[in-house]
């Protein structure tokens, strides 16, 4: 069987079934944004994410400083979604021998800027020759309470930390290969090339959220993970889904459906989480988009109509 038939998540399920975690200090292993280990009473988070040339980025379409920034941010986003703060990173990189030194230095400058912003350090790593650029960051963090995908409770409210769909629109604009872009288009492109991890919400996620995930595979795809792992149904109110004004302009200009971008666009790195009605007031400037109910699947409600949403999201295979 080709792994393409399994898909990314099917492959993950197959491979992780081979490996057995025997260490009782492991609080959470495979299947969440981070793994978590209890080390002498401290909850330490572990995550890793990669940027592969030709798969995650096109060299000519992103500034090297932005690439370095993005690599750090997407890993910090995983830490934030589990209610943690980032601490230390290890970086493995591969470049072809004819890569210009200045280009590599600019990537590391972007990484340094992100490390300074998120108050963390990269403390080691590895380099290799490669036919294509790869950047693989392994990151650790700390939390006082692990927040995962399986903690949603019936009657929880579903809350979104910010707008989605912007990164997908930005990528599509980049791929148009135009010489000039309008100001709103430049902002959409920046949303794709220089995402901001919601580390500002980490403490509140840890204190008040029952479940959480960062939006890398699309809002619907990631909500599906919460519903599946919590064994509950997610009901989204269509009228409560926020659409950013720049995304509205993009969709009008190019005759696109904003809902498709909001639900299925990936790499926004906002957080979507569930929280009790009592504690939702702790999350100002966030959007309450639905609720958790008994059942399974993700559904969209519009007026008196309720439909089960197609289960699709971005996969790397």
Describe the fold and architecture.
The chain is globular. With 317 residues, it is α+β, with helices and mostly antiparallel strands. Helix 2 (64-81) packs parallel to helix 3 (101-118) and helix 4 (166-175) crosses helix 5. The longest helix is centred in the N-terminal third of the chain and has 18 residues, at 64-81. The strands form 2 sheets. Strands 8-10-7-11-9-12-13 form a 7-stranded mixed β-sheet. A 6-stranded mixed β-sheet has the order 1-2-3-6-4-5. The chain has helices spanning 3-16, 64-81, 101-118, 166-175, 183-193, 202-208, 219-230, 245-254, 258-264, and strands at residues 26-28, 35-39, 42-52, 85-95, 121-129, 134-143, 157-160, 209-214, 233-237, 271-275, 287-293, 297-302, 305-308.
Coarse shape = globular
CATH topology description of the largest domain = Phosphoribosyl-aminoimidazole Synthetase, Chain A, domain 2
**What are the segments in which pLDDT stays under 50 over at least 5 consecutive residues?**
none
Largest sheet: 7 strands, mixed
Q: Share of helix among residues?
A: 25-40%
Mean pLDDT: 94
Q: What portion of the residues fall into strands of 2 or more residues?
A: 25-35%
Radius of gyration: 19 Å
**Neighbour order of strands in the largest sheet:** 8-10-7-11-9-12-13
What is the chain-wise order of helices and strands? HEEEHEHEEEHHHEHEHHEEEE
Give the CATH architecture of the largest domain: Alpha-Beta Complex
Topology, number of strands: 13
CATH C-level class of the largest domain:
Alpha Beta
Instruction: Give the count of helical stretches.
Output: 9
Query: How many domains in all?
Result: 2
Which class do the helix and strand fractions yield? alpha+beta
What is the fourth-level CATH superfamily of the largest domain?
PurM-like C-terminal domain
Distance between the termini: 14 Å
């Amino acid at each position: 069987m080709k792994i393409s038939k399994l898909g990314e998540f099917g492959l993950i399920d197959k491979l992780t079934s081979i490996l057995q975690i025997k260490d009782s200090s492991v609080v959470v292993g495979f299947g969440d944004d981070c793994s978590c280990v209890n080390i002498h009473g401290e909850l330490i988070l572990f995550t890793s994410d990669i940027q592969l040339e030709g798969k995650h980025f096109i060299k000519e379409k992103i500034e090297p400083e932005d690439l370095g920034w993005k690599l750090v941010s997407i890993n910090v986003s995983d830490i934030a979604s589990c209610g943690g703060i980032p601490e230390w990173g290890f970086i493995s990189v591969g470049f072809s021998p004819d890569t210009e030194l200045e280009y590599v230095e600019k990537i590391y400058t972007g990484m340094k800027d992100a490390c300074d912003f998120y108050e963390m350090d990269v403390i080691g790593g590895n380099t290799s020759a490669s036919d294509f650029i790869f950047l693989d960051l392994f990151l650790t963090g700390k939390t006082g309470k692990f927040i995962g995908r399986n903690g949603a409770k019936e009657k929880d409210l579903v809350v979104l930390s910010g707008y989605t769909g912007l990164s997908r629109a930005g990528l599509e604009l980049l791929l148009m290969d135009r010489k000039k872009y309008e100001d709103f288009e430049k902002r959409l492109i920046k949303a794709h090339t220089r995402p901001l991890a919601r580390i500002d919400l980490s403490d509140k996620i840890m204190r008040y959220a029952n479940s959480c995930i960062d939006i890398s595979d699309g809002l619907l795809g990631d909500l599906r993970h919460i519903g599946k792992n919590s064994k509950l149904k997610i009901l989204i109110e269509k009228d409560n889904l926020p659409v950013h004004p720049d995304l509205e302009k993009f969709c009008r200009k190019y005759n696109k459906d904003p809902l498709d971008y909001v639900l299925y666009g990936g790499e926004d790195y906002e957080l979507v989480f569930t929280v009790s009605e009592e504690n939702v007031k702790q999350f100002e400037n966030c959007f309450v988009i639905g609720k958790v109910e008994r059942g399974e699947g993700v559904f969209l409600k519009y007026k008196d109509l309720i439909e089960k949403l197609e289960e699709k999201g971005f996969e790397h295979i």
